[in-house]
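Below is how a single chain appears once it has passed through the pipeline. First comes the sequence as given, then the structure the pipeline wrote out for it. We keep one example in the README because the format questions we get most often are answered faster by looking than by reading.
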Amino acid sequence: MKKQIFIVLYFLVFGCGSLLAQREKSDTFSLGSGRIIITCKSRKAISKVQEWIGSQWQNMDFTEGTNNRKKRVITYTENSNYGIWVSTFLYDKRNNIISETELCSSKIGKTRSDRMLYTYDDKNRFVSQITQNNPDNWQNFIKVIQTYDSTGHLVNSVNQLWGNGNWVNKERYVWVYKGKVIDHGNHELWSGTQWVPFIEPNYHHRHRR
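Resulting structure:
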């Protein structure tokens, strides 16, 4: 499935944007025991995943994406045997994604909606992501904050949870560099008052004699 998504997004950015007034174009790619058929026409990429069953190709998955004049992917839709997944994207003037909304609806009737809000610093580096749910009245859920050192290395990534109207620390990752290479990293948890090292559980297995 990741290969299918990558191919569709690649065509939207590098292929379909140049087919504005041209004729429809199709390509076929192998995918294990099946195949993907990508069709581009006027800023839209449509893919079909097919499997050879019996004596013919049968559709297993359908994906559609659209882009704008600047070749930015603005919508992505996947319709499979499991359900429907729709993503919508918004961009800033620097071509960074600042909002991504996902709507998932399963075949058994379950639905889930999430919205991710992204921010960047004056050097165009990603610095935060807020994930929200409940589309009728978007509610904060998870926040990720990233910081960089004076040389531009990512040195800190903090995960926070929303609770009682405030962001509360959960965990963080800290990286130490030697030159341009990461020397070591630490995973820490928030105790309520300070950061403490995360200790991997040590599982002991009893062996029967």
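The mean pLDDT is 78.

See the next section for the split statistics.
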